[in-house]
Amino acid sequence: MTHKELNRLKLLLVEKKKTGLWLAEQLGKDKTTISKWCTNSSQPDVECLIKISKLLNVELSDILIVDNEEI
Q1: DSSP line for 3-68
Q2: 14 beta partners
Q3: CB 70 within 8 A of CB 13
Q4: Is residue 39 assigned to a domain?
Q5: Residue 4 belongs to some domain of the structure
Q6: What does the pLDDT read at residue 33?
């Protein structure tokens, strides 16, 4: 299975000058979980995506990468 990027979380954290540790604390998650999300080795559930969008003050669609060719 090919590794596929589905979110832009790592880039958004950099843009917003936030760290994975900060996000982990805000969400009550382990920093390892956030790291996996940032490297796209696993993905947050929809509820977490909504919380992340509010915490980072971005649209939900700004977090996700959509490849129109595969829809």
Answers
A1: ----B-HHHHHHHTT--HHHHHHHHT--HHHHHHHHTTSS---HHHHHHHHHHHT--HHHHB---G
A2: none
A3: no
A4: yes
A5: no
A6: 98
CA distance 46 to 18: 21
CB-CB contact of 20 with 35 (8 Å)? yes
Domain that holds residue 51: 9-64
Is 2 within a domain? no
Q: Which two tokens stand for residue 15?
A: 């843009």
The reply to whether 69 falls in a domain is no
Express each pLDDT in 7-64 by its tens digit: 999 999 999 999 999 999 999 999 999 999 999 999 999 999 999 999 999 999 999 9
